[in-house]
Every structure is written in structure tokens, then in C-alpha cells.
Amino acid sequence: MVDTSDEWIIQRTGIKERRIAAKDESTASLATSAARKALEAAGLEAKDLDLIICATITPEMQFPATACFVASALGLNSTPAFDVSAACSGFIYALETASNYIKSGRYRNVLVIGAETLSRITDYSDRASCILFGDGAGAVVLQKSTEANRGVIYSSLHADGGGWEMLCCRPGSRHPLDVETLAMKQQYMQIKGKEVYKFAVQRFEELIEDAMRKCELKANDITLIVPHQVNQRIIDSAMGRLEIPIEKAFVNINKYGNTSAASKPIALDEAWRAGRVKSGDIIIFVAFGAGLTWANAVVRV
After folding, report:
1. What's this model's pTM, rounded to 2 decimal places?
2. CA 44 → CA 75, 76, 247, 272, distances in Å?
3. Cβ of 32: how many Cβ atoms within 10 Å?
4. Of the N and C termini of the chain, which has fewer Cβ atoms inside 10 Å?
């Protein structure tokens, strides 16, 4: 469909495979599946949840929120549920929101989901974007703990709306979905690849340095860095300049491509199940994406 090859994609991005949702699947169905796995891993039932937050830029519908569909699928009919839209940084935004609800004493168990069906807004005739994105979902349960210095011990969230044209999907109140919008293919994601690449490289290093400085961490203190799965070359070059062993970065972009808000929880789940993370370990999450947004979080598991 486009002028490219498997070799070209792998060399420039590190992506070998992507997952595409079936016609009978949706963002909410993927999110619900991830939610059930997270609840099982946490040893909880849906009725134990006090709040559900879903990070996504490909919601089930414009409204209601995807999180409401997940709550209903889990058999809940009064539990609060809402979505967070911060693109690839969405999971960290949702994680920080959930953490603050728990720290305030308002809630005890909060389900945080990152879920996307980016294939539904991908133009497969656009080589700059179609090779990058896939579908998926991941979830975690945050729970109140009596142990000091556990959970989300630091995070920082940032946004610069002035850079919105670098990565966007236009339909909305500014660009209603009409004949003209469809003719220009504005119902799909549009990306300025070179600009986004430069932005990602800069923010990757800044976010890790900030996290290490604010938490007084050295490379040996960090068990794992879970970066946004955007480009293998970006991750490799940034880790090299930071002088942190590449083995400390958990990367699965080769299997899934860029799944936006879902990339961090999917990677975390795989790392946990593979024995790369255990209780007491320190993880740094970093993300950057449309908005423009960027964020980090330091978590002691």
C-alpha cells in the first residue's frame, strides 16, 4: 500500500510486528480484558474498586467515557469512572491522578487503564504514520499501602499546546467531521515525523535526568526504565548519552509498535510476568506525545 519494506521499517523504528483489533473488538473491550487481568493479579474483585480511570485518545465513543463502558462490563453500576486524554503521556497522567486520590484518603483501590485502537484512526496510505501504530491495552491497580515510600514517589506532568500540529487528529469542534474533512483525510492521525523525533529525543533525556535528580537516584538504584515505546533508535541513543546500561530499558516496541497510552502498562505487565520487576524495585516511566505532552513517574513497586 505504501513504498516501504520490512527491512526499512525495522532499521528506522525497531518495529517488527503490530497488533490490530478485530472488527468485533473496541477500545472498551480491550480495556476490559486488561482490567480483568489486573484485578486477578491484584487479588481483587471488581466490587472492590473505588474508581476507574482510562487513558485513551481513541475512546469507545465521543461520549460516554470509555471507562464507563469498562465499569459496566465489570458489573459495576455506581463506581465513578472517567477518561484522561493526554495521548502517549496519558497513562502517566492517569497514574498520577489515581495516586493523588489515594494519598488524599478519598479512595483505596483505583484501576488505571491505558487502551488504544489506533488502527481506527490510521491512514494506511501514509507511510510516515501507518508503520508506527498498533492496538492494545494494559492496566494496573493502585492500592493504599501502610508502607512508607511505596507506590508513585515522584512524577511531573507537562504540556505545550503550541505544538499541537506536530501530532494530531483534527475532527472535533474546530474541525467538524464533514465532506471537506473526509476529503482531506483529516479523520486520521497526522504526524510531522522529523519534528516529533527531535522532540522525543530531547524530552526522553530530560525526563530521566529530572526523575533521578529529584529522587536522588543513581543508575544502580533503578531496576527498570519503562519508556514510551516510540522508536528503538531514540531509546538506544538516549540511554547511551545518559550512560545507563541499555539492559535497564524494557523495550517491546518490536512486538507492538506505538500503542500510545497503552504502551507503558503493556510493557510493565510483560516485565512483571517475565520476572524483570519484583516488590520493592524502582521503576522510572517516561512518555511524550501529542499535546504536546510529556511526563515521568518514579514508582517503587
Report:
1. 0.96
2. 14, 14, 33, 18
3. 23
4. N
pLDDT digits (tens, 9 = 90+) for 207-241: 999 999 999 999 999 999 999 998 999 899 889 99
Catalytic residue among 109, 231, 252, 258: 258
pLDDT digits (tens, 9 = 90+) for 4-13: 899 999 999 9
In the block, cell 510516515 appears at 128
Contacts of 201 by beta carbon, 8 Å cutoff, 6+ apart? 234, 237, 238
* 258 belongs to the catalytic site: yes
5 closest CA partner among 135, 254, 235, 15: 15
Q: Is 88 a catalytic residue?
A: yes
Q: What is the mean pLDDT of residues 114-120?
A: 98
Secondary structure of 154-209 as H, E, C letters: EEEEEECHHHHHHEECCECCCECCCHHHHHCCCCCCEECHHHHHHHHHHHHHHHHH
Following DSSP, what letter does each residue of 21-44 receive, concatenated?
--TT--HHHHHHHHHHHHHHHHT-
Active-site option among 54, 68, 88, 169? 88
- Helix 27-42 vs helix 263-273: crossing angle, to nearest 10: 30
pLDDT at 148 over 80: no
Give the Cα separation of 289 and 284 in Å (integer). Answer: 17
Does residue 296 carry a catalytic annotation? no
